[in-house]
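Lab notebook, entry 308. We have the chain sequence and a SMILES string for NAP, and the next step in the workflow is to get a structural model of the bound complex before anyone spends time on docking refinements. Request logged below.

Task: model protein plus NAP, output structure tokens.
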Amino acid sequence: MADSRRVIVTGATGLIGRRLCEQLSAKGYQVVVFSRDPQKAQRSLPGAAEYVAWTPSESGPWASAIDGAYGVIHMAGAPILGKRWSEAYKAEIVSSRVIGTRGLVNAMRAAQNKPRVFVSGSAVGYYGARDDTKLDESAAPGSDFLAQVAIQWEGEASKAEELGIRTVLVRTGIVLDPSEGALPQMSLPFRFYGGGPILPGTQWFPWIHIDDEVGLILLALEDERARGPLNASAPEPQTNRDFSKTLGKVMGSPSWFPVPGFGLRILLGEVAGMLTEGQRVIPKKALDLGYKFKYPTSEQALRQLLKK
Ligand SMILES: NC(=O)c1ccc[n+]([C@@H]2O[C@H](COP(=O)([O-])OP(=O)(O)OC[C@H]3O[C@@H](n4cnc5c(N)ncnc54)[C@H](OP(=O)(O)O)[C@@H]3O)[C@@H](O)[C@H]2O)c1
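Result returned:
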């Protein structure tokens, strides 16, 4: 019998993972942290039941820790933003997700007592760069680099279904957190009255508050009806221009200084496409399952996150 409280988390030390582990522990789960550096993980994230050395590989001594666990939540992967995408780094973005996922599924296949549920990370980048079309989980994938990554990543994770393990693919939008990720960088120019949209400004910005991101991962873990892709983005997405206006309003600063897309391309390279293009993602499955977003609008989310 799988232990109903034991949950494995990869990427536990990351932006999403840390908040997730806090909530899992608060709910009485025994959190088993899989990390490339378990000692460091223990220092930065105390309070877990166990810390296990794990790397994204097809197999390893860590595999035995999966036997008998109730669930596996897989959030690890080389960061997408923050580095230029050289060919070598692109290969790391792919392999850290695809090989990591394959190894976890291999371990589930070998387990005598298989986990009941596998929650695997994915991203709204699955849909590629899109126009104003509303995209629910049934929408077709895109064809750019991030879409290719998400397709391969989800393809590996879905193999757990063949083992009879309920599998949920959490297609995460841009996570808004007060101290890490996109928001501190986006809000910085507004502090100096120099904020504005990223041009063209008409691109959609599929954001989600960190509390709802964690709420949806918990839904995926606990609700037996959740299965397959699950969009994790707010129900009221905005264009970059409108989001920027809301950010300015909340911070009491104008949104007058647009950032030219070509400048970002020179500065950041191919990764700039994540900011100059977007998707109008709708969290249809979450809403159909009755999930109540704590922060459905950007104004509510930003006021809470920025304490305004
Ligand atoms: N944050 C967002 O806005 C967002 C949006 C869409 C999708 N996602 C996806 O959701 C997942 C979690 O996001 P996050 O923002 O929490 O991630 P994060 O903070 O960048 O990192 C998650 C963890 O992944 C592990 N990791 C880092 N580099 C790695 C590598 N080269 N190989 C293997 N593991 C590595 C690290 O854990 P250890 O050092 O402990 O091993 C790290 O703490 C990611 O896969 C991300 O792509 C995030």
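Notes for the group: The first strand starts at residue 3 and ends at 10. Worth checking against the assay data. Residues 11, 13-17, 35-37, 41, 56, 75-80, 92, 96, 121, 123, 172, 174-175, 181 surround NAP (CB under 6 Å).
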